[in-house]
Amino acid sequence: MRCRIQPRKRDEALYQRCLADGLSELQARILAGRLSGYHGELEPLVAPSLRHLAHPEKLKDARRAAERIALAVTEGEHIGILTDYDVDGITSHVVILRTLNELFGVPAHKLHSLIGHRINDGYGISLPLVERTLALSPRPSLVITADCGSSDEPRIARLREAGIEVIVTDHHALPLDGPPASAYATVNPTRSDCEFPDRTIAGCMVAWLTMSLTRSVLIELGVLSSSTPKLSAWLSYVALGTVADCVSLGGSAINRAVVTQGLMLINRMEAACWRAMAERLGADSVPFDAETLAFQMGPRINARSRLDDPYAALHFMLAADEGTARQHLDVLDQDNQSRKAIEADMTESARALAMRDLAEGEQVIVVYLADGHAGVQGIVASRLVQAFGRPALVLTPAAAPGMLTGSGRSIESLHLRDALQRAHDLAPQALPRFGGHRGAAGIGLPVEQLEAFRRALRQAVAEQLGECELYPCVFTDGGLKPQQLCLTTLDELARLAPYGREFDAPLFDGEFVVENLRAVGADGSHLMLELSSDGMSIRAIWFRALTPGETPAFGLGARLRCAYKLSRNRWKGRESLQLMIEHAELLS
Fold first, then answer.
1. How far apart are the first and last CA of the chain?
2. Do you find a cis peptide bond into 48, omega within 30 degrees of 0?
3. Cα separation, 268 vs 275, whole angstroms
4. Distance CA 93, CA 169 (A)
5. Residue 547 CB: number of other CB atoms within 10 A?
6. How many angstroms separate the CA atoms of 256 and 585, rounded?
7. Residues 558, 534: contact at Cβ < 8 Å?
8. What is residue 283's predicted lDDT score, i.e. its pLDDT?
9. Rounded to an integer, what distance in angstroms lies between the CA atom of residue 378 and that of residue 395?
10. How far is the C-alpha of 572 from the C-alpha of 92, rounded, in Å?
11. Is the preceding peptide bond at 401 cis, omega within 30 degrees of 0?
12. Which stretches does DSSP call E strand in 310-409?
């Protein structure tokens, strides 16, 4: 399917308000193209600050959770920390573990790290993870979850029956019947009875707020001194988890504040994990920005949990020295390379299978890869969304016989979690387990129910989308004048950072003439270009422009319409502007 370059819709009222507030025309254009319908103050978004954080007591059950954790600390109880295996889960784990151990003085031998294995255990509070918890000796009397638990009532009930109380901290949408009844407390901003002003915060932020409130409770009780450090230093981990989990960086003043503050802390390079990563990426990678977290750190940490045991990622984040951090980073890098190879094979197979859905005019793609790897489902689903402009779910066999597991990614106009809820309502047996949010979700179902699930999901998606035309597209912020193709413009755009989900990095479009080109990269799949526009020449790089062995479809003198980002090219201490081509069309 031919990808289309389209201008973003601009909120004209917001555009004029931005100009009136003193923002440049380009900055106003960027904001008005991303925050349609936003009526709040602009200052918290364009100048992120921690003073915009809401008090953790606004989170329903946070006080109850904090008092129970404080009791466990004062009574010397064994505490289990149970988190998901992705970046959000791992960073949540670090926040809770370091807070309990380093700030609250809980001995390491009384803290139990419980992280599920993606393939063997599945997501959330899985039954294998419950069995592992019950097998601990001594058992924890309290389990704190993060980034999971909201949909795990049966397993929480099992722990409660065994005398283990469970505090759920999570950010995923709750089931229709509400918070898990057997949990001692459920701290989740998506609760209907929760007054917290931002439902888009990541799981690691929910954990951070809960532990921050626990510190306050321990000070109130006289257990801790008022001089006990706050949890501000852990915002480096919260920034990583927030960016990697793709929660909103658009209208969320809180998410923008914690990512901005966290990046400042990361770039101090005080923790061994950040120093080791900077060393691995090279001197030109510093200072880190949100894209570094999203496309360099996040994939490495996720790769370990996708393919193998996630504890190497936890050990990397907790490494006390650079040597240890390097060793664990080597493991993460190896897994990331393996993940890329598996992803390429699965994507090729998935694209071929998706053609059947496209031929039938379906609005949602559902593919089952009998030989696929469960750890790469979400990435492959993202590739299908990019290629075909439709929501996509990729399923593979689960560890349990006769079961399938799957991950989905959505488009802007479809709330995926709501669509899955509707599919469940239509055919409960076909979708016994699901969870997620607007843009991404995970599912589990019996293999014999696959076709029933397809039918139910197709109906649910049709009800949301109606007759909406679907196609792959690249949304741009319009063109730039030749004199704007400079580092000064890049600095102007950087003042609106951080960029991420629902606040995409600026993307422009324009027509250029090819003055020079050559294939680069180990497999020759990237193109290095010299482009000209109105007599001005500029360098550009187009990653993955070719399949290995392919020759470009154009030559010198060709006219291209390009969708591009501005990029700062650093080389041996010198900086220059280059374009990063995202998509290009050959003009006649």
1. 20
2. no
3. 9
4. 11
5. 9
6. 34
7. no
8. 82
9. 9
10. 37
11. no
12. 365-368, 392-397, 403-409
Nearest-angstrom CA–CA distance, 67 and 69: 5
Residue position matching structure tokens 């060709």 = 558
At 572, the amino acid letter reads: K
Collapsed DSSP state (helix, strand, coil) of residue 546: coil
Q: In what order do the strands lie in the sheet with 392-397?
A: 365-368, 392-397, 403-409, 440-446, 433-436
Residue 527: other Cβ atoms inside 10 A: 22
Question: Residue 37's CB: how many other CB atoms inside 10 A?
Answer: 8
Residue environment code for 60-70, b if the CB has 16+ CB neighbours within 10 A, otherwise e? bbbbebbbbbb
Burial status of residue 92 (CB atoms within 10 A of its CB: 0-12, 13-18, 19 or more): buried
pLDDT of 391-441, one tens digit each? 999 999 987 889 999 999 999 889 999 999 999 999 999 999 888 778 888
CA distance 202 to 189: 10
Cβ 214 vs Cβ 69: under 8 Å: yes
* SS3 of the chain: helix, strand, coil, percent, to 5: 45, 20, 35
Rounded CA separation 88/126 (Å): 17
**For the chain, what's the residue count?**
588
Q: What is the pLDDT of residues 150-190, one digit of tens each?
A: 989 999 999 999 999 999 999 998 888 899 999 999 999 99
- β-strand partners of 111: 79
Residue 488, C-beta contacts closer than 8 angstroms, at least 6 positions apart: none
Report the DSSP beta bridge partners of residue 583.
563
Structure-token match 């950087």, residue found: 494
Backbone angles phi, psi at 74, to 5 degrees: -70, -30
Tokens of 39: 């009526």
Distance CA 449, CA 395 (A): 12
Which tokens in the block code for residue 580? Answer: 């990063």
Compute CA distances 49 → 53, 134, 233, 415, whole Å: 8, 43, 15, 30
Residue 398 is predicted with a pLDDT of 87
pLDDT band at 232 (very low <50, low <70, confident <90, very high): very high
Tokens 């560890």 sit on residue = 399
Distances from the Cα of 574 to the Cαs of 128, 372, 510, in angstroms?
Answer: 53, 44, 26
pLDDT for 85 equals 84
Tell which residue, 538, 400, 429, has the closest CA to residue 480. 538
Closest alpha carbon to 247 in 530, 45, 502: 502
Average pLDDT estimate for 309-321: 89
Q: What is the DSSP string of 218-239?
A: HHHTTSS-TTS--GGGGHHHHH
Reduce the DSSP state of residue 570 to 3 states and report it: strand
Task: Using the predicted structure, report yes or no on whether residue 306 has a pLDDT greater than 80.
Answer: no
Tokens of residue 480, six digits? 């730039």
Residue-wise pLDDT tens digits, 345-359 = 999 999 999 999 999
